[in-house]
Amino acid sequence: MTKKANKTNPALFSLIHELKKQSNLKDAAIWKDIALRLEKPKNNWPIVNLNRISKYIKDKETALIPGKVLSDGELTKKVSIAAWSFSEKAQVKIKKAGGKYMTIEELLKNNPDGKNIRILG
After folding, report:
1. Which residues are CB-neighbours of 86 under 8 A, at least 6 positions away?
2. Distances (CA, A) of 96 to 53, 73, 100, 119
3. Per mean pLDDT, which range of 4-13, 17-26, 79-88 is the poorest?
4. Tens digits of per-residue pLDDT, 41-94?
5. Which residues of 105-119 are buried (b: 16+ CB within 10 A; e: fewer)?
6. On the chain, which terminus has fewer CB atoms closer than 10 Å, C or N?
7. How many other CB atoms are there within 10 angstroms of residue 79's CB atom?
8. DSSP of 19-83, one letter per residue?
9. Cα 115 to Cα 117: distance, rounded to the nearest angstrom
10. Under CATH, to which class is 10-119 assigned?
11. Residue 86: helix, strand or coil by DSSP?
12. Distance CA 39, CA 29 (A)
């Protein structure tokens, strides 16, 4: 019998709960998908570099990474990126490219319907 890993970070626990709640309220399956991904062990969370974001995100889309964003490569578009965490260098490069970075909570607040979001990772 395997032991289920419990999340000890209260901010993460609160975010997962809020994502599930919004998923039910707004009938937006994207938030439940992200909640389930964040419930997994942290070593299974994606780590995405800026060059991958540039390659797969189109204009007027928001990149959503249920993990960490690192600074490898260059960001060639002005895009919004939401993630659990960012490296300091990634934050600098995003601002330099004219983009915007935010937490998943901020994205949930600004876009409760989950429209024009692409999940990477």
Report:
1. 68, 69, 94, 101
2. 15, 13, 10, 23
3. 4-13
4. 999 999 999 999 999 998 888 999 999 999 999 998 899 999 999 999 999 999
5. eebbeebeebeebee
6. N
7. 23
8. HHHHHHHHT-HHHHHHHHHHHS-GGGS-EEEHHHHHHHPPTT-EEEEEEEEE--S---S--EEEE
9. 6
10. alpha beta
11. strand
12. 16
Cα angle 15-69-39, degrees, rounded to a multiple of 5: 35
Q: Which residues contact 92 (CB under 8 A, 6 or more apart)?
A: 71
Q: What is the model's pTM?
A: 0.90
Q: Which two tokens stand for residue 10?
A: 């209260």
